[in-house]
Each structure stands twice: as structure tokens, then as C-alpha cells.
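look at this fold:
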Amino acid sequence: MVIAMAVVTLRFIFISEPDKPVVTVKVPDSMLFQEALVIAAKQQNKDPTILSATYPAGTPITGGTVGEVAEKNTVIHVIDPSVVG
């Protein structure tokens, strides 16, 4: 018996990067959201420890799995305080 793992596509929009602001990742819905953020940050050569993630309305994403976050929205805004100020 094969158990299919659900895959979620998240779009990370790096608000402070006008040249290449969007990173799309496909990850298992059971993955911790923080791990998906690290994957996206590495693609942008950003330090994931200083980034903050919010839903487009500005609500902070505090944790959970990719599936839990994706239930609310698959578009994630990423803010780099070292660029924004």
C-alpha cells in the first residue's frame, strides 16, 4: 500500500527584494512552516533567523505546519528588517 503525501505550493514574496521577490517552494504539508521558510530564504541568500513571515493582511505567522499555514493562505510575505529598517 502506498500512502500519498500531500504537497503544498507556497509563494514567498520577499517584500524588500524588488529584483527577485518571489520564491515558490513545493513541500510536504506535514513539514514545519519554519523549515519551508528556511528553504525559501536560502534561495534568496537571506539569513532565515532574522526574517519574519506574515500573511498578506499582515498577520504574523507564528509556527505550525505548512498545511496549517496553507489553510489560511499560500501566499506569504517575508520581511527582512535589515533592509526595511
